[in-house]
Amino acid sequence: MTTAVEMASHSQVLMEDKYTVRILTLNRPNQMNALSWNVITRLLQLFLAYKDDPRVKLVILKGQGKSFCAGGDVRPVICDIVQGKWRLGADFFSDQYTLNYVMATYSKIQISIMNGIVMGGGAGDKERAVNMLISLRLFSKVFAMPETELGLFPDVGASYFLSRLPGFFGEYVGLTGARLDGAEMLACGLATHFVPSTRLTALEADLCRVGSNDPDTFSSKILNAYTQHPHLKQHSAYHRHVLDVIDKCFSRRTVEEIISALEREAIQEPDEWISATLRALKKASPASLKISLRSIREGRFQEVGECLIREYRMRSFQHRVLITQGCRAVVIDKDRKPKWKPRRLEQVTDNMVDQYFKRMDEEEGWEDLKSFHQGLTCLLQ
């Protein structure tokens, strides 16, 4: 007998069986396809089933409506934590991180069609898909990691993929929450192909012809046939002269040094991009900025599983100590006036940041993720 939870899970993730192809559609358009627990558990169930099914050669993931995915549906999690039900929040993120690991290390071809907004945890759903396809109106702002504005930090594998963007572009995106359009995502490597939305139906039909013989080559040829190469718009942050400033400033050791370097650049050559970047940094949570910078820097030298284990530790510690002012101001009360504690960068000590990166005390009921593969959890001990 199908339970109410199973019915909700099945309605929030639609599945189409197309010969050797499975098309999974996130179906919460009114919530911008935010990842509820039902969505996460259903996706995990399906990806694990397809992994061992020899009939499945290709998995396509897309979103219903105007968004691909706006990240995790954190409001219920926040409400649980406010009520003292921290274990439910930990379990939610444990399942989400496990899903991200399964997708990041998947042996079969994945194509994520990001036809719409991609934010926060929605980016984790494509962190190592073989093909990350952008197909929205060319200069729409479609990608962002806005965690520092919420008093959080980029997670679900973000420290892995942001740290691998060219130069120090990942630090810029992760700390400022900068919004990128399709052309910028393609240029920096967050997406692999750009296809106009008007051609998506035809593209899916062709991809569903993938057979059992060399599906890698077949799908690549189809994607390449549909791909266009958009140009960066005039004021894009990915133009060479801006990238030089990003690398010069965001390569600095601390957040304070990054801001000081940007302020010097603003004096020497006033520029609206620099002003906007400084405003974003000064608006964000001081603690989040320092935690996020360290996380991205550590991610540069870790594999994706190590990043996810560490990020889960960080998330779990955050759940134990506070409900962030950003989440309160943006998600709950919606007054958009967070009262950060500490209020200033210089008040955020190294010891405060270190707490987020320590191994969890299992005697207190917390434990590391153990579901990746044998021996992985020993890597960060």
From TrEMBL:
<keyword id="KW-0378">Hydrolase</keyword>
<dbReference type="InterPro" id="IPR045004">
    <property type="entry name" value="ECH_dom"/>
</dbReference>
<comment type="function">
    <text>Hydrolyzes 3-hydroxyisobutyryl-CoA (HIBYL-CoA), a saline catabolite. Has high activity toward isobutyryl-CoA. Could be an isobutyryl-CoA dehydrogenase that functions in valine catabolism.</text>
</comment>
<feature type="domain" description="Enoyl-CoA hydratase/isomerase">
    <location>
        <begin position="21"/>
        <end position="357"/>
    </location>
</feature>
<dbReference type="GO" id="GO:0003860">
    <property type="term" value="F:3-hydroxyisobutyryl-CoA hydrolase activity"/>
</dbReference>
<dbReference type="GO" id="GO:0006574">
    <property type="term" value="P:L-valine catabolic process"/>
</dbReference>
<protein>
    <recommendedName>
        <fullName>3-hydroxyisobutyryl-CoA hydrolase</fullName>
        <ecNumber>3.1.2.4</ecNumber>
    </recommendedName>
</protein>
<comment type="pathway">
    <text>Amino-acid degradation; L-valine degradation.</text>
</comment>
<dbReference type="Pfam" id="PF16113">
    <property type="entry name" value="ECH_2"/>
</dbReference>
<dbReference type="InterPro" id="IPR029045">
    <property type="entry name" value="ClpP/crotonase-like_dom_sf"/>
</dbReference>
<dbReference type="InterPro" id="IPR032259">
    <property type="entry name" value="HIBYL-CoA-H"/>
</dbReference>
<comment type="similarity">
    <text>Belongs to the enoyl-CoA hydratase/isomerase family.</text>
</comment>
